[in-house]
Amino acid sequence: EKEFNHYRRIMPVTEIERCERRFAAVATNLSTGRELWFTEGDLHLAIRASCSMPGLMSPVRHNGYWLVDGAVVNPVPVSLTRAMGADIVIAVDLQHDAHLMQQDLFSLETPRQEAEEKEGPWHTRLRARLTRMSSRRTAVTPTAMEIMTTSIQVLENRLKRNRMAGDPPDILLQPYCPQVSTLDFHRAGEAIAAGQLAVEKKMDELLPLVRTAV
């Protein structure tokens, strides 16, 4: 809640309608399982509800219902932007490398170890196999938080691919920052730099679309 309290102090706008640019947020209704679109009303409430990751942040009470993160049902809300009348949709996928984080957390074998077990003289293969077996016994078990956040990311990844297959954006930006986890607020600079690089890689596709929209 500390981050949200800080945000409220520095954000002068309190209503969605007063935003300089059109804004909307998505939350999930825990009673119905449906997504709820915030397109007007309390800006701070909309942002807080749309960020309420299950198990990490408390849900938000609104109109008699409990709301959590919209990513539970719509991780990349292309449909919302289309409904708002967007001619061109540029989507940002922050979890496309979730499988890499999962591999970092749970994989105990390196490519080199795997290769040594299959190639080379018998004593090299034996040493590699014994090393792997030893590392399995001494490996640190992932924390409950790591398991929960990674599991959520994997589920969101599958849901996102299914939804975007039926309603794809015009441009999909995929910043590569597997080293930044969900709660690494102090590493925002790395995430921003990854976002800038993702935009630069898509510049040849972005510029023609921007020119036609102006």
UniProtKB/TrEMBL annotation:
GO MF annotations in UniProt: hydrolase activity
Annotated keywords: Hydrolase, Lipid degradation, Lipid metabolism
Pfam entry (one): Patatin
InterPro entries: Acyl_Trfase/lysoPLipase, NTE, PNPLA_dom
Positions of short motif DGA/G: 69-71
Domain PNPLA: 1-82
Gene Ontology biological process terms in this record: lipid catabolic process
Protein name: Patatin-like phospholipase RssA
Species per Swiss-Prot/TrEMBL record: Klebsiella pneumoniae
Gene (name only): rssA
